Amino acid sequence: MAKTGKTGKLLLIDGHSLAYRAFYALPVENFATSDGQPTNAIYGFASMLVNLIRDEKPTHIAAAFDVSRKTFRSERFPEYKANRSATPDEFRSQMSYLFELVHAMGVRHFAIEGFEADDIIATFAKRSEAAGFETVICSGDRDSFQLVNDATTVLYPKMGVANLARMTPAAVEEKYGLTPKQYPDFAALRGDPSDNLPSIPGVGEKTAAKWIVEYGNLDSLLDHVAEIKGKVGDSLRAHVDGVRLNQELTRLQSNMDIDVTIDDLLWEGIELGTINALLDKLEIKALKDRVAALGGRSGSEAPIQELETAPRAERAEVKIVEVAPEELNKRLAKHK
């Protein structure tokens, strides 16, 4: 792919996060082909992707997916995400089509054994900033807030597939009273039920935020742990090892060895023939005009390179929690 030679705007998409959002936001019984293939995750994901491209107008795009729950984090802490329930068959059956959709939209996707989608996104975000790009990340995982800076914004779905909060440095500080750089230290103290990271008994979000603000960062807090008074101080001292482990697991890896440059992520438009054929196959006609409005190519399909050790989406082992459709926020809280 040709080099652009100019800075631009990179859109990074947390594929599994958005697909789950779509799956839970749209009732599966209302989205299916005539032969019974569920399409709610596909429809919702495609709608979000179209809206993002239309509204953000990126020059470069990449999507990241998880391969399985076996990562360096689960090796370090076997209980990591072990509380998540099995993936519904209705969701699993849509994953191969989601990959086809991403291809047809002209977007390269990446899924790397031993790492999470967040780590891929962090790596590309760091490279994008170094290249002078503006970066927009769309993810339902709050861990992504640690990547926010003057050049990088996170679009965080607040509800469903349409309402996105724009998390800038000011927005993160307004919500948590912390800088994005301090967020992972705060998260390590708070714990994370969705990832099965233990909290400190008696220490909630307010106390965790207060300590990080007072001491600047987690390392400084733990260096002065003897100064913390009361029962919360006793509790912190009793759980220092757990907090340090949480800190290690919460920080995203931004230095992965991915042999792809930001220029390689140049978005050259949609392969209209391929996307229309896929939408026809899935009996999703409502999106065709919106997709066509983005512009695309009518020639042969552009080559899409994938960094995957498990190239078929059906092999991915993502864990979720099944709850009633009307309780969307509670369901998504289990997966951020």
Structure overview:
By secondary structure, this protein is an alpha/beta fold. It folds into 2 domains: 9-174 and 253-333, Rossmann fold (3-Layer(aba) Sandwich), CATH 3.40.50.1010; 176-250, 5' to 3' exonuclease, C-terminal subdomain (DNA polymerase, domain 1, Orthogonal Bundle). It contains 15 helices and 8 strands. The strands form 2 sheets. The chain has a 6-stranded mixed beta sheet, with helices on both faces. The chain has a two-stranded parallel ribbon with strand order 7-8. Helix 2 packs parallel to helix 5.
Provide the CATH topology of the largest domain.
Answer: Rossmann fold
The CATH homologous superfamily of the largest domain corresponds to 5'-nuclease
Please state the overall shape, judged from the principal axes of the Cα atoms: globular
What is the ordering of alpha helices and beta strands?
EHHEHHHEHEEEHHHHHHEHHEH
- Give the strand tally: 8
Kindly state the mean pLDDT as a whole number? 83
Summing up helix and strand content along with how strands pair, one would put the structural category as alpha/beta
Number of helices: 15
User: Strands of the largest sheet, in order across it?
Assistant: 3-2-1-4-5-6
Number of domains: 2
Detail the poorly predicted runs. 1-5, 299-336
